[in-house]
Amino acid sequence: MRSIWAVAVNTVKQALRLKIAAVFIVLLFVLLPVMGLKMTGDGTLKGRMQAFVSYGLSLTTLLLALLTIFTAAYTLTSDVKDKQVYTVLTKPIRRFQFVLGKLFGVILLDAGLLVLFSVIIYSITILLPTLLHADNDQIAQVRNEFFTARASLTPVEPDISEELNQAYNKLKQDGEVPAGVDENPIARRNYRDELARRIGLRKRAAVVGEELLWEFNNVKPEDPNQDLFIRFKYDVAVNPQDLSIYSKWVIGDVRQLRLGTSIETPLYSLERKDLIRTFHEFAVPADAVAHDGYLALAFLNVPLNDTVVIFPLEDGLELLYKADTFTANFIRAVLLIFVRLVFLAALAVFAGSFLSFPVAILLCLSVFTMANMSGYIGESYHVVGAQPNGLYSYVLKPLIMLLPEFDQVSPSKFLVPARLLSWSALGWLSFTTVCLKALPLVIMSLLIFTYREIAKVIV
Amino acid sequence: MEYAIETFSLTKIFSDWWGRNRVVAVDGLNLKVRTNEVYGFLGPNGSGKTTTLKMLLGLLHPTKGKALILEGDATDPQINRRIGFLPEESYLYKYLTARETLDFYGQLFKLPARVRKMRIEALLDMVGLKAVANRTVGTFSKGMARRIGLAQALINDPELLILDEPTTGLDPIGTRQIKDLIIELAKRGKTVLLCSHLLADVEDVCDRIAILYGGRIQAEGNVRDLLRHSDKTEITTGRLSPAALEKIKQTLAEERAEYTIGSPLDKLETFFINIVARAQQQAVPTSGAESRTQISDFLSAKTDERARREAILNQLVSASPSDEQTATTDTQNTQPQPAPATPADEDLLNRLTEQVDSKPVTMQPTKAKPEPATSDQPDKSILDELTGRPLPDKKNAHPGDSANA
Ligand SMILES: Nc1ncnc2c1ncn2[C@@H]1O[C@H](COP(=O)(O)OP(=O)(O)OP(=O)(O)O)[C@@H](O)[C@H]1O
Ligand SMILES: [Mg+2]
User: Fold this and answer.
1) Whole-number Å distance between alpha carbons of B405 and B403
2) B295 partner at 20 to 30 Å CA-CA among A26, A86, B62, B211?
3) According to the 3-state scheme, what is the secondary structure of chain B?
4) Phi and psi at residue B228, in whole multiples of 5°?
5) Which ligand is nearest to the CA of B22?
6) Is residue A233 a contact partner of residue A277, using CB atoms and an 8 Å limit?
């Protein structure tokens, strides 16, 4: 343990004294305050703060990620190349301890720098309303919609398999299924997927005069006096003239209406006009939630419009309510970044355990880039994977699954919409990233380094 | 423990990624270094010395054979704890200061902070770097780095010290210090494996030597045994008057003995050159540099003056300074062709030889104990601190004693 610690401290000294870290530190020290004062977002205070937190954290993540990759790859490869290992590994230290020491050193450095820069970002964020002399309205909005951590509920996707079967059989009976599709399993699957997509879309679309209803269970706001937030985005079939949609919303326990029983919880209704294809949010008092946690949302496509209104699949509609503080959420978001850096450190140490510095860097940057577009890669995989193909199913798919999905769960995704990143979600993400993805890399690097011929020159 | 280092037909063959370009760096080496001996490991460039050390220390895997170090495996921390190693060049972390460097290595031995601090100061003092202890070693000159490298190898008070050309880059005082240190450590029951090109160094301190060429041991044994010609007698005296010399010659003539009279040569050097030349004559394959004493043609073209001086120097090295030709065997292409001597050259040569002749005879037939040059001597108290106990005098100690101690 003591030798691991000695190597770790030595690694931190290396990164600091060789000014590898200095470049990144100076860059962040200059850029963060500038960003705080210069970023305007959409012009509102909330927009500015969202922009600052989002770009500030992204920039910190990116620079620390690069720093991690460079330091971890350099520290191991340079020791081999410049032969310091000759003297170190002939001391009573096992090779795995040496590699672990390097890894811990990089992680230690990351932890230190991450704390430093998160404190800076946090302080600037907290001070920003004062620095910008914001008025009270804006401060109130920021308090409700930014300085909070809101749990989010999305509508449960309705089960459409029954409907799909019926529709398919009906088409088949009517002879509308193209020839050859029913016999060929691949063609049939594609055809049915398309059919399912249409049925799903129909469920999220309202023609003029039609109503859409979403029902939520288990809505548990901390305090009935607080507000609930409905966040939504419209898509349309035909662009309206002013790119806006008129709407009427009813929120509350709509079962009271149907059954004709006495009204116990209030029903709220409001009319709005909103731009299409952008996120909007409105607040409703939390007492609209029924005692058993039930809440319904009804949207009416009012006749002032003359187009079909569609709520996009992933993020068309969301119900948000305060579940934790901004500070706690921020800390968890920073931990999420840390977990990411741990993965990258493991990756770079792995690469450095058997490659030369440039090759190791190349490998790490490729993986890093792919992890940052994992969603895109996953999609393209699905397109290709439609054909059953051994290479894809047994080689590429597991490899893609081993990639961490940096883009899918970035910290700004939580902090910008003030969405709760729960401990359990963070725990799961950390577990998958560290134990399932980083740990195998670490184990491999330990094995490689232990059995490698260290004095053999790699040209 | 009889042997501190033992190898059994140790072989290392380097090949490139495709398995081509095979280089036999070490070839069936059976090296036996006894406990508490100073063993000299000699050989021309590329003869496989460093490769052998790397295999001993587990930095390279042998292609064939086995290496035992302190009766164990060099990857075992329990073994490493007892070894000190100074590599060919001092590979140091350039960004650490001298003191931090030693502290880092000390930590790897899990030395308690107090002991570490004490040893570091003692070692810095010993290698003469106390004044620059807080400078980063990246700024050190080659010799200074070498000294830190040596200090680093000693921080754990090793039983077995492996030194790969310890004196490269060192000034004469530093060289002398290292030699004194080795002798002192040997007295204290340590084993030293010394690789060096500086034959005089080896001759001064080593009990036994091996000469390596092409990855094989060409000669091995006790330094004095190897150098002694049992069918010859050598008498070394102070300067003799011409009359006395004449008397001796007469006596020798009566004995019908063949004789040479001159100043003693740097004998090990001759021997070394002989061994290498013989190996070359037998066309022993080597993956290292061939020993050529001739300068490349393309270089000599413009440097007549230098070539001439080179030739003189070669004559001085290979030929006896007096009129008789001694040990050097004639080999067709490796011997330097003495440049046709111009009168001026002869003159120079004579003056040079005269100087050699008039030098007082210094070569002692016994192993030279270095003169106690007060400032150069390793600080005894430091060594006592390092070992923590006074050790029996090496020469009186029974070999087994030190192993059990
Ligand atoms: N990693 C390697 N890959 C290929 N060949 C190597 C490697 N290391 C050493 N060699 C070759 O092995 C031979 C022995 O090298 P080694 O370094 O052991 O020589 P040496 O006796 O220490 O020489 P020197 O006196 O110059 O230090 C040389 O021909 C060298 O080119
Ligand atoms: Mg060497």
Assistant:
1) 6
2) B211
3) CCEEEEEEEEEEEECCCCCCCCEEEEEEECCEEECCCEEEEECCCCCCHHHHHHHHCCCCCCCEEEEEECCECCCCHHHHCCEEEECCCCCCCCCCEHHHHHHHHHHHCCCCHHHHHHHHHHHHHHCCCHHHCCCEHHHCCHHHHHHHHHHHHHCCCCCEEEEECCCCCCCHHHHHHHHHHHHHHHHCCCEEEEECCCHHHHHHHCCEEEEEECCEEEEEEEHHHHHCCCCCCCCCCCCCCHHHHHHHHHHHHHHCCCCCCCCCCCHHHHHHHHHHHHHHHCCCCCCCCCCCCCCCHHHHCCCHHHHHHHHHHHHHHHCCCCCCCCCCCCCCCCCCCCCCCCHHHHHHHHHHHHHHHHCCCCCCCCCCCCCCCCCCCCCHHHHHHHHCCCCCCCCCCCHHHHHHC
4) -85, 130
5) 1
6) yes
How does pLDDT run across A204-259, given as a tens digit for each residue? 888 898 899 888 888 877 777 888 889 899 988 888 888 889 999 999 888 887 76
Residue in chain B nearest A97 by alpha carbon: B108
Residue pair A413/A336 in contact (Cβ under 8 Å)? The answer is no
C-alpha to C-alpha distance for A436 and A375, rounded to whole angstroms: 19
User: Is any Cβ of chain B less than 8 angstroms from the Cβ of A454?
Assistant: yes
B75/chain A closest Cα distance in angstroms: 7
Tokens coding B46? 């590329």
Tell me the count of A-B CB pairs closer than 8 A: 81
- What lies within 8 Å, CB to CB, of A1 at 6+ separation is none
By CA distance, what is A79's nearest residue in B?
B93
| B396 pLDDT tier (thresholds 50, 70, 90) | very low
Structure tokens at A8: 């770790």
> CA–CA distance from B60 to each of A3, A322, B249 (Å)?
23, 62, 58
The closest residue, in CA terms, to atom 24 on ligand 1 is B45
Interior/surface letters A51-64, b for 16+ CB within 10 angstroms, e for the rest: bbbbbbbebbbebb
Helices (H), A95-150: 95-131, 136-145
DSSP state of A318: E
- Supply the pLDDT for residue B92: 92
The separation between the first and the last C-alpha atoms of chain A, rounded to the nearest angstrom, is: 33
Per-residue pLDDT tens digits for A295-311: 899 999 998 888 899 98
Q: How high is the pLDDT of residue A441?
A: 93
B241 vs B232: CA distance, rounded Å? 23
Check if the beta carbon of residue B215 is closer than 8 Å to that of residue B47. yes
Rounded to 10°, the helix B343-358/B304-318 angle is 40
Which neighbouring-strand residues pair with B222?
A: B208
